[in-house]
Fold this protein.
Amino acid sequence: MVNVVHTRKELAAARDGLAGTVGVVMTMGALHEGHETLLRAARERADRVLVTIFVNPLQFGPDEDFDRYPRTLDADLEICRRVGVDLVFAPSVNEMYPEGPPTVRLDPGPLGADLEGLSRPGFFHGVLTVVLKLLQLTRPDLALFGEKDYQQLTLVRRMVRDLDVPTEIVGVPTVREPDGLALSSRNRYLSASERRAALSLSAALRAGAAAAERGDDAGAVLAAAHRAFDAPEARLDYLVLTDTDLEPGPVSGAARLLIAAWVGATRLIDNTAIHLAPRS
Ligand code: PAF
C-alpha cells in the first residue's frame, strides 16, 4: 500500500522521513495515463516521489464542474502504488483552507487574464495560490507539470522565478490516445459522438504543425489549423500562435499553437510546439 496522509501535520512528519531529492506531482485526482507519465518522470528524476490529490475549489468558477469533477481516490492510489509513489497527500478542502476561501491570492499578472483566463476569470489566481501552498507544504526539489496545461506550466515557471521559490519546474510532454486526443480527466464527460468531435482539436494542431514544417508563415499556419478544426459539435474558443513564453507580439522560430474548444458541455484544451521557418 502507498503511504497516504490527509493532514498538514501528518504530511510534515512523513515529508521529514523522505531522504534524498523529492519530486512532487500535483493533481486533482482522476488519474490517467498522462498523470502516470508524470509520476514515472518524477520517479526517474528524484529519489522520492510525492503526489498531491486535491480538487481545488479556488480554481473553479461558479458555473463550472467542481461538484461533478471525478473523484476516484481508490483507483488513484492504485496507480500511485503501481508506479512506486512514496507518499500521497490528499487533504480535505477544510484542511487546505481552514479559515475558508483565502482573501489573499496570487496575482498571475497579465498572462493570467489571457487565453484560459479570458474564459475562466480568477482561474489562475486559484491555481497559483494552491500550487504555492502545496510547494510550501511539500518542500520539493522539483515539481513536474504536464505541457497539456501549457499556460499553467508557463505561469508556474514565472511564479517560481518571480517569487524565488527554490523548486525546479519540469514540463512533461502531453500523452495522447492513438487517434491524437490529448489525455484529460475531463475526457470522461464526453459521449461517443462528442469524443469524435473532440478530435478536431488535435487535428487543428497537427495541420498547423504540418504547415510550419512545409515552411509556411505564421498566418498560413493559423489558417491551416482553422481549416482543420471541422466539427459541428465543437465550438472554438481560441486558436492562437504565440511565442513559447506566451508573450504577445510577432512570432518566429520556436512557437506554440494553442487551442480551446467546447465540445457539448465540456471545455477542452490542447497545444503543440511549432517551429516557424526564419522570415526571409
Ligand atoms: O493541473 C491540475 O491538475 C491543477 O491545476 C493543479 C496544478 C493540481 C492545481 O490544482
The two ends are 59 Å apart (CA to CA).
